[in-house]
Specification:
Helix content is 79%, strand content 0%. With 219 residues, the protein is mainly α. The chain has one domain.
Length: 219
């Protein structure tokens, strides 16, 4: 039977999850790029890669093992590494557009060998804002879960959170795929180029924010 406390917790999880899952960011941008040629399957893989990092982080916070993340140096290293990954992907994707001779060749996306699963892992593991979100926002319902359901409830409540990532990334990847089929080649290339440029901006933001505390984006 669902108690009033548990119902309140589940509603809180959904509302707080939306602030993270639906917010535009580098994971979302790359998801659109991969989705534009691979459809919902690539979105699902992106969400799975994200979960492979998120669930251990979630448990670590719940078990009190995450105090290391409060160290400023950890945030700096994560921000720099994540920024470099974003800039590298954005540049490679942008330059690959110039080498394509026809629309069909657009499937030769940068990093295709490793695919969205790896990018989902990298952009989660080296995103300090994602980790800080869990420490300061996600932790509110983690501790609520422990108080109401004890530690046995952590996997259950996590499932009530992570479904939103899978639905959102899968849906937007599919919509990007449909959009590609409706766009002419030059407009599609412009769309991907714009996303690649935005990803480079995110990378610069992550590095500048980590090193000097300077924000060029409202994050």
């Amino acid at each position: 039977m669902i108690t009033e406390e548990l119902l309140h917790l589940l509603i809180t999880v959904q509302l707080l999850s939306a602030t993270g899952a639906l917010a535009p960011g580098p994971l979302f941008i790359i998801n659109l790029i991969y989705g534009s040629y691979g459809g919902w399957k690539n979105g699902f893989k992106m969400a799975l890669g994200h979960m492979l990092v998120e669930f251990p982080l979630y448990l670590a916070i719940g078990l009190g093992l995450i105090s290391l993340m409060y160290m400023a140096d950890v945030k700096i290293y994560l921000g720099i590494t994540g920024g470099i990954v974003m800039i590298a992907f954005g540049i490679l994707q942008f330059t690959s557009l110039r080498k394509r001779k026809n629309y069909v060749s657009n499937t030769n996306i940068a990093f295709k060998k490793h695919g969205p699963l790896l990018m989902g892992v990298l952009l989660s593991a080296f995103n300090p804002f994602f980790i800080l979100w869990w420490i300061f926002i996600g932790s509110t319902f983690i501790y609520g879960t422990i108080n109401i359901l004890s530690y046995y409830g952590l996997p259950l409540i996590y499932m009530s959170h992570v479904w939103m990532d899978f639905v959102w990334l899968t849906f937007t990847a599919h919509m990007a795929f449909l959009g590609r089929n409706l766009l002419k080649e030059k407009f599609y290339n412009f769309f991907v180029a714009a996303l690649s440029l935005l990803l480079v901006v995110f990378g610069i933001h992550f590095i500048s924010k980590s090193l000097w505390g300077i924000s060029i984006l409202p994050l």
